[in-house]
Design goal:
165 residues; UDP N-Acetylglucosamine Acyltransferase, domain 1; alpha/beta
Length: 165
């Protein structure tokens, strides 16, 4: 049996990760959705009920410190590490004065720990297969299969996966 011989601390980490991911999907259920949202928040993740999330989503390390704006759309097979923030970059303005429309994360995207994806106006799109490095601050739309890193983030390469070339 795969995984039967894991150390106790590894089993607890896997259970927590799976539990948090299950809570993300439970937000869609009519009766327990609000409770799932509150539990996620208590565990350190702010993922509003309005955030649309595709299949095979992963909150790595339990998603501790993850904050998503209510106008986010997350595609399929997206992996988000701890400490990620996705939302408005113009928080110095009142919400009513903001031109921010939302952030769309494409399929097969990996967002490294501590990364920030911030949009000042319109809709920011993160292309399918994009990798955003740890602690990067992404301020603009990306293409398909790109690798971004730095503060502010800039294009540093392309994924080697033929699916994105």
């Amino acid at each position: 049996m795969v995984g039967a011989h894991r150390e106790p601390s590894q089993r607890v980490t896997l259970m927590t990760r799976n539990f948090c991911t299950h809570l993300v999907y439970a937000r869609r259920w009519p009766i327990v959705g609000r409770l799932a949202y509150v539990l996620l928040k208590a565990l350190g993740s702010e993922i509003p009920l309005s955030v649309k999330i595709g299949s095979d989503f992963q909150l790595v390390h339990g998603g501790f410190g993850v904050v998503l704006h209510p106008a986010c759309v997350i595609g399929n097979n997206v992996k988000i590490y701890q400490g990620v923030t996705i939302g408005r970059g113009d928080t110095f303005r009142e919400a009513e004065q903001s031109r921010f429309e939302g952030v769309h994360i494409g399929n097969d995207v990996l967002i490294g720990s501590g990364a920030k994806i911030l949009c000042n106006s319109g809709m920011l799109h993160v292309g399918a297969g994009t990798i955003i490095g740890a602690n990067a601050v992404l301020l603009r739309t990306t293409g398909v299969g790109e690798v971004w890193a730095g503060v502010p983030a800039h294009l540093i390469g392309m994924r080697s996966d033929p699916k994105y070339q």
